Amino acid sequence: MLRKNSIMLPPLTEQQAIVEYIDAKLSKIDQYMADLQAEIDYLKEFKQRLISDAVTGQICVAEPQKGDTQ
């Protein structure tokens, strides 16, 4: 047997305020995610450049030997 249950809903203005709040937060989250993705892409590119420079000898990656000056 199914009973009729009443559902409590906040007033329409309060519902709209909730939606606006959530939309604002989601917009900030989306912006943070885009910024983080850009940072990740930059670091991946930097890593590839660093590897390339090390392989081609443009930077020295050898550990300094005892008594060597830098």
Q: What does the model show?
A:
This protein has 70 residues and is an all-alpha fold. It has a domain at 30-56. Helices cover 63% and strands 0% of the residues. It has one helix and no strands. The chain is rod-shaped.
What is the compact description of this entry?
The protein is built from one helix and no strands.
| Approximate strand percentage | under 5%
What is the ordering of alpha helices and beta strands?
H
Radius of gyration: 28 Å
The percent range for helix content is 55-70%
Q: Please tell me the overall pLDDT.
A: 90
What characteristic shape results from the CA principal axes? Answer: rod-shaped
Largest sheet: none
Spans of at least 5 consecutive residues whose pLDDT stays below 50 are none
Q: How widely separated are the two ends?
A: 85 Å
Give the strand tally: 0
Protein structure class: mainly alpha
Helix segment tally: 1
